[in-house]
Amino acid sequence: MIHTAKNCRFFTLLLLITAGLLFSLAAEYILPFDAYSQNLLQALQPPSAAHLLGTDRFGRDMLARTIAGAKITVFTALIITFLASSLGSLIGLFCGYHRNRLVTILLRLTDVFLAFPSMVFAIAAAGLLGGGTFNAAAAIMLVSWPKYTRLVRTQTLPLRQTEYIEAARMSGSSSWQIMFFHILPVIVGPICITAALDIGTIITEIAGLSFLGLGTAPPAAEWGSMMSGARNLLQTAPWTIFAPGIAIFITVSLFQLFADSLRDFFDIH
């Protein structure tokens, strides 16, 4: 009964997240306002029946812009998480299964990246690469993959000497076959949980870089950029900064809860 309740919670959160992502993709065809359409006569209108979240300084509907921001912020975070977890997991599998000089070099490189606070390193990397969504994503990915390398290597080391791995090795399976078909399926749970937790962190990092002017630039509807552009309006038009801020809070909370339900789903404690 408890197991059924945990599965129900997992699938409910998965459905909510999926529905939210699909709605953000279809919002421009559903909502009556365009996220980029300006109307200065409607500038800085407070929340009302006409504009549920009010308008910004250019008269753009805040609800439309907040939902449109999910397409940039959340989908960018999903792509970064997928690439970082894939790269880090591949390196971790290799380092956990093999013993050679290349493994030592890769592990020392991982330690270098882990030695710096991730956000500070991302700011430095984004500053060197220049602004823009792509460069901000590249900077965040640079600091995101090492955690997966350490996680997967730690999970792989004790499995390397188990009897069923030895049996697979004696049956003629190659190293890559053993890593991908015998070890990876066993440790996929911790990887998925870490990735789900990482999505929320990466969303805040994307928003943070954009807020500092190192990420997506206006007029793109990106949550951090929207908050940066509205920071001078906090006292006169607080809805312009609260709308993207609350969107970040809700989205990050959903992914945190999803990661927790994912842990119960895989029965990892």
TrEMBL record:
Lipid metabolism in keyword set: no
GO CC annotation: plasma membrane
Domain of life of the organism encoding this protein: Bacteria
Listed transmembrane segments: 72-97, 118-143, 178-197, 202-221, 241-259
Subcellular location: Cell membrane
Every ABC transmembrane type-1 domain range: 74-259
Keywords, sorted A to Z: Cell membrane, Membrane, Transmembrane, Transmembrane helix, Transport
UniProt cross-references to Gene3D superfamilies, sorted A to Z: MetI-like
GO terms classed as biological process: transmembrane transport
Protein's UniProt keywords contain Transmembrane: yes
Membrane topology: Multi-pass membrane protein
InterPro entries: BP-dependent_transpt_permease, MetI-like, MetI-like_sf
Assigned protein family: Belongs to the binding-protein-dependent transport system permease family.
Name of this chain's protein: Peptide/nickel transport system permease protein
